[in-house]
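Input record (Table S2, row 442):
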Amino acid sequence: MSETNNAIPNDLSAFWMPFSNNRQYKKNPRMFVGAKDMHFTTSDGKQVLDGTAGLWCVNAGHCRPLITEAIQKQAAELDYAPAFQLGHPKAFELANRIVELSPDGMDHVFYTNSGSESVETALKIALAYQKTIGQGSRTRLIGRERGYHGVNFGGISVGGIVPNRKMFGTLLAGVDHMPHTHLPELNSFTKGEPQHGANLADELERIVALHDASTIAAVIVEPVAGSTGVLIPPKGYLQRLRDICTKHGIILIFDEVITGFGRMGSKFAADYYGVTPDIITTAKGLTNGVIPMGAAIVKNEIHDAFMTGPEEMIEFFHGYTYSGNPMAAAAALATLETYKQESLFERAAELAPYWQDALHSLKDAQYVIDVRNIGLIGAIELEPIAGKPTKRAFSAFNKAFDKGLLVRTTGDIIALSPPLIVSKGQIDEIVDKIRETLSEID
Ligand SMILES: Cc1ncc(COP(=O)(O)O)c(C=O)c1O
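Output record (pyridoxal-5'-phosphate complex):
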């Protein structure tokens, strides 16, 4: 690539950036022009350690050779194939590979292009399934406060983040929310799974009692809520949700867009917690973030219920132009192969205790009011500046960046999720840089 390609363009105004403070950013833009393994390179030539796997997606690290080669080869061989009524081998091969990784009895994969689309797909499958089995009165969807399920209308309706919802009208009708499970007064500084709060799953019983089970199609939760600051489920909570859903014929959807593909040191959070949902939504780590792709992984019973009418009929009126796109399928196959060859899920599990101890060593750092961790995920919660929520964490983000560390902040929480190839030395570097950062900001 030539030098000029890496130069910052003169005019940044045309690109309306997502989830960004556009005006402030464009006054002081920070651009990445390269990446390799654990580091980004900035346009001014600095190395930045990736403490967040991009946006929770680059689980195998950056510019990994198998993935790069697979994409290059695929682009020259078969760039696109129509997704409806036609196929190409890699989409089928990939579905088989995903199924091999998925919990037993979840043998079917519906492709999407993002986490948001995986969520919409899962919600639509749940509603259509209930109708297909003669339970058409089950139309209600239940989400959770502080849940993040992407940005489309279904996802923001079941999601529980106020700014993501309040500007967009009435959203989907017939949605209720369970309370979130974050109980700082009881669980602060817990290492791993918090002790208190499994009883919050019983709130689902309250919602069932209010509306009657015959009106409820599905419940969707993130096993670990990532985007609202790493809210880890209390011990026993997810099993209790599973039991209540089973008892009442409600589909349970785990949104594993973050927790899937090794982030927990397991294939999925479903494996980590030993709780199997009916549908798993994925994206991010499926292709290492390299090419957009997501998938909803579906229990056999649900899939099979659709495969009953005349064979010449379309069974499910849903899909995307890019479902199972050849480039994305090639990237995903190479990603899964990289995870396997390098035993990255196992590596994450082995590193998790070191990660835990390193993060909790920040307990006494300035402003820290909580430290949480699970798998290779962590959160450092800061005391907010009175009357100025989010300001302190955003200062930490900027300061850490200047020190060559990328963190992610949400509210006054620093969220961390390094690529699974992170070394112990790099974990120490992340923690040291955060400690320094916190000692230098207001
Ligand atoms: C749990 C969860 N669901 C859905 C999404 C949305 O994914 P995307 O941004 O790919 O649409 C995210 C993104 O962070 C997520 O964390």
